[in-house]
Every structure is written in C-alpha cells, then in structure tokens.
C-alpha cells in the first residue's frame, strides 16, 4: 500500500489526542504510549486505500482512519491485561499495564474507545466527509467493534479457554475478534468516499478475507516463530489451552486456508474500477508475513 499515507496517519492520529493537562497527564501518556507503538497501521491504511479506490480524498478519510486505529489500540491494551491474555510484551515493548499499572491501562483503553467516536463526530470529520458519512461510519464501527463484533469475539475467546472448542466456535471468534475491525476499516474507507452499497459489500469481503488469513497466519507463527521475531510472547495459546486453527486442523490445512482467504480478498477487488493492485499485493504480503 502507499507508504506516504503512514506519515499522514501518524500526524493526524496524535493531533486528535487530548492536550496535555496536569491532573490527567498519566492517562494521556498511557494512551500515547500504545498509539506510538505503531505497528504496521494496517487498518488506517486500509481506510485510506479504499477511500482512494472509490474516488475519495485522503483528507475526508483521515478522521475515519484514526478512529479505527484508536479502537484497535484500545483492544490491544485490554487484550494484554492479566484478566485477559496476560501478556507482558506488545510489539517488542512492555505492555501498557507493565508501564502504567493495570488501573491506568484499563482507563487508557476506555479513553481511546470513546475518543474514536468523538473523532468520528467532530466538526473536522463532518466538514471533510459530510454529516451522513460520519453518522454511517460511527454506526458501522460500533457494530463491528461491539458485542456482536470484536468485543464479542474476545468474550468467546475467553469462554473457550480449556474447553477444546470446536472448529465452528474458533472460526466465529476469529471472524469477530480479528476480521471484524479490518472489515470496518475497509467499509469506512468506502463511506468516506460516498461509495455504492455494492462497493461496501465487496470491501467487507476483502476485509474478511485478509482478516481471517491474518489470524490463521498468526496461529501458524505462534507455533513456528520466536518471541523476538514476533515482538510478543509465543505459545500463549497452548499455555492457555486455547483451541486454534492449527491445533484443530494442522499446519498444512491452515496454510491452504490462508491461501483460500487471500484469494477471496483479491477476488472481491473485481467490484472496483480503480487501481486495485496495491490492495491485491498487500493481501499477498499479509499471507506471507513472518511477524
């Protein structure tokens, strides 16, 4: 995808953070700490790519992109907490709660979640994308991030520990916990550009395809990589006695599933008239990633 988008995303993202204050400064520092961890910015990049593909402007899509990244970052902070996955590392750095404490980390996640919807409804977003697009974006993101989306997937994940969950349950939790927010990013890009309903559905299929492939590849790497390569502890799924695609289906079947979901994503791009090569190449890169 277009690397020049990265600088725009980072600049806009930190521009939406609250101004420094005396009394809440530790909370703001905790929010900034996890946002600065960065990662690949996959989700906001997808927002901008789909907006451009549908003929929209980067400026219109930037608040939407930032909102998705805030949701993603809050989910990572909460995922790492002792009451969830209890991970001490995130992207090669100490997890938020290891630096700021569990209480502030919890609040940092809460604050980023609410800031996402403040960002979607602010005057800057409405002026760039229009009131209707902002309303639809907020509704779409809430649906994908809430109890029937990402949060619901996390709940299924927690309830599936030590239960030898079957394939159907694992598939549902991955679709909700991982793929939903990627689908949201793709759809929000379309909304920022005023795309058609058909294009939104195609973008959602692309997001589901790369989201599922991403998580299955993650399960593979959890068995074949190292802590240093991934930037987070490996083997945590086995330690928590969680069923994964790898434990249920084996490595070779999982590699085939990554190929099939990647093909689904690339096929979905046929609904667009613009240059889909960057998104097709990105799907292939995700399928082959090593970290």
Question: Could you estimate the helical fraction of the residues in percent?
Answer: over 70%
Distance between the termini: 18 Å
- Write the CATH homologous superfamily: Farnesyl Diphosphate Synthase
What's the count of strands? 2
What's the story with the biggest beta sheet?
Answer: 2 strands, antiparallel
Point out poorly predicted stretches. Answer: none
Mean pLDDT over all positions: 91
* Domain unit count: 1
CATH topology label: Farnesyl Diphosphate Synthase
Give the C-level CATH assignment.
Mainly Alpha
Compute the number of helices.
16
Principal-axis shape: globular
Beta-strand content estimate: under 5%
